[in-house]
Every structure is written in C-alpha cells, then in structure tokens.
Amino acid sequence: MAPPAQAPPQIFDRARLAARRDRIAKTFADYSFLRQRVLADLESRLDDTPRKFARGLELGAAGGELSARLLASGKTQAMVAADTAPAFLAAAQARGLDAAFADEEALPFPPASFDLIAAPLTLHWVNDLPGALAQIKRTLQPDGLFVGALFGGGTLAELRSVLTDAETEIMGGLAPRLSPLPGLRDMAGLLQRAGFALPVADRDTVTVRYADPLRLLADLKGMGERANFTRGNAQPLPRRVLARAMALYRERFAGPDGRVPATFEIVHILGWAPAPGQPQPLKPGSARASLADAVRRVHKDEG
After folding, report:
1. Do residues 272 and 145 make contact, with C-beta atoms less than 8 angstroms apart?
2. Within 10 Å of residue 211's Cβ, how many Cβ atoms?
3. CA-to-CA separations, 196 to 142, 145, 290, in angstroms, rounded
4. What SS3 state is found at 164?
5. Tens digits of residue pLDDT in 146-188
6. C-alpha distances in Å from residue 130, one per residue of 8, 254, 293
7. DSSP-derived secondary structure letter, 301
8. Which residues are CB-contacts of 34 (< 8 A; sequence separation ≥ 6)?
9. pLDDT confidence of residue 300
10. What is the DSSP string of 91-152?
C-alpha cells in the first residue's frame, strides 16, 4: 500500500493575507503599478487569439479591473471576479460585476465551470501551488484557457541580499524575511504536472528605481506584498537589522543619481485544459515558446 500523501507545508497564513488585503483595498490603486502592467499584458496576450470566451473567472481579482476590461472589449460574455477580501469583493460589485468569495487553495466552483480563468499576481501566495493549478484545470471546460502571472524567484534580489547579509552580520543567523518564489522552469514543469496542454511560461523583468529603499518597503506594504508567514515561521525584524540592510542597499546599489533599483521578475504562465485534437503536451523542460505563440498555435484556424 502506498503511504498517504503528505499535506503541503503551510508557509503562508492565508487568513492573515485576506485580512491584509481587506485593509489595503481603499488605497490599493495608489500602489498597483505592477498589477496594471500585468493586466495590460494579460489583456494583450488574450487579444492574440480570435476566440471569444463565454464565461471567465478572475482569481485574486481585487476590484475586478481585468474582468471589466474583458467584458468591455467583448473578449468574454460573462466574468466572475473572485477574491478573499470583502472590501475587494464590494469594489467589484460596485463595478457591476458578478463577485464571489474564492480561495485559490480551495476553489468552490464545480468542474468545467469556466472556459477562461485568469490569475493576475496571486498564485505566489498559495501554499500548495501544484494543487491550486490542478484545481484550476479541473474548473476549466475542455479546451478552456488558463492565463496567470506571479512573482518569480528573481524578485527583490537586491533586498534579499542585503537583508541576508545584515541579519547574518548582526544576529549571527537568518530568519525568513521574504517569500520563497518559484523560478521560470519550475512553473513550466508545474503546469505540465497539473496536466495542462501546451503549457508555456515566460518572464517579464521590471526594474523600479527609488530615491530611498524605505520607499520600496512602503510600496510592498501598499501592494499587499509584505511577507506573510504563518506564526511558526514569522519573526519580527529587529530595527538595527533593518537599518543596516538599508545602509547596505544604498552602499551597494545606488546609481550616480543616488537612486537604488528594485527588480521584480513576473512569470507569465499559460495552459489549455485538454481536449480532443489539441497539440500534445511538450516534453518536460521544453516549454520555451512565448505565450502569444501558444495561444495562436492552439487556435490558429479560428476566427
């Protein structure tokens, strides 16, 4: 008899994350510049197929802006804006959208409920990413499309390095400070493992420059992207460690104008729910085509 499957480690506190998102909802638009880039990118990639979708789902929808755009463009006939934060759900409803509470780790929808699912900058907060992707595939109709974006392993490389060195120097050891994030190859492999047809992952690297690295920390708070570890994994950051890290940030990374860079790696992912007549899944490690090519290849004869 095979041993029982072990539950995935609980790294992130999902309830605390929802509460934080609820608190930042009113000011979220002031800090959503990366999300705006992702929404425009996802919308552009969806434009690469002439297919129209009957019913779509936006996970981690915040106020449902992507849903509203897709409805306005005619790309979808109906959308459900899903989130775990009541304030974001209220904002989506105020837009006239169909809103629903949905945790990415436990989707409440029946199988084959949607022919499009989009997840803009939300899946890097799930504890069981393979399980979440499997649920997304199950919730798609055959030949349904999943598109998403999440922060990848190269995100905040500068901040990670200075926090590591400052804490090692002062405390003689390390505690978790920034979320572990998947790499590009990881995501291509996870899509294949979840059973998506023609899975593809590619990256968009964005560098934001700050006059003060403390402003980066304020932006992360406003985005809802501060570390959100479970109680057993979370430890307060001593002020002297933070001060030393900020000093190292300036020393190592400041440019001639005194501004410091912050790197964000956004991994875009795409996969189709299997259906007869589709191209076969690629061999592991071979998902190198662009997302736009994947959309065109699957539906190149539609229009």
Report:
1. yes
2. 11
3. 10, 9, 16
4. helix
5. 999 999 999 999 999 999 999 899 988 777 777 789 888 899 8
6. 10, 38, 24
7. T
8. 121, 206, 223, 264, 266
9. 40
10. HHHHTT-EEEE-BTTB--SPTT-EEEEEEES-GGG-S-HHHHHHHHHHHEEEEEEEEEEEE-
